[in-house]
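DM from R.C. (forwarded with permission)

"hey, sorry to bug you on a friday — could you get me a structure for this? deadline for the figure draft is monday and I only need the backbone to look sensible"
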Amino acid sequence: MAYWEQVVAVLREAIFAYTLTGHGRNIGAGIAIVTLLARLALLPLAVKLARAMAAHHAAVQRIRPELDAIRTRFKSDPGRVAEETRRVFQREGISILPGSSFLGTLIQIPLMVALFSAVRQAAAAGSRFYWIADISRPDRVLTVIVTAIGAAAAAVGTPSSTGHRLMTTVLPAAITFFALSRMAAGVGIYWGMSSAVGVVQALLDRRRAQA
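My reply, with the result:
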């Protein structure tokens, strides 16, 4: 626990270190800068994981007709369905679960959770950020902006062939709006910067897929 608190403290102090002077300490700017640096540091790994997931999805889609046929043929025998499915995956050299992608995602989670904790602590100190009078309090305009950025990230990152695309865009946006409308604006700055990097990542993934 002490080690975790030290990590959070380092990130919090980094936020304070990157505050811009001019009209007093601008903690919001520090939050934006540190979040951007952290997300950019993780971007190569995130892009690699996204590509691995896309490749796995494409491979599974290729054998989807055969898997559907197995489920239809042995619908009364779940054990046989599982065994035949395993054999198909093994024959094609496809892992049932993309373990490397799952592990890579787990690696990123502690850093982002620590950064989130540091942002909440820094935001509690309060300061002005552009039109926001106090980043320790919620801001409606920022909430709308961040919700729009998050919706854009979801829309760009969802393949057009995916069913229920509207739901995969609207539902995350609604959750974002509901959460941020009750959180400090400093958290909204963190959330918005993370979502903006997510848009860049999705565009890179789409560009590679179309190449």
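R.C.: lifesaver. The mean pLDDT is 84.
me: no worries. The first helix runs from residue 2 to 17.
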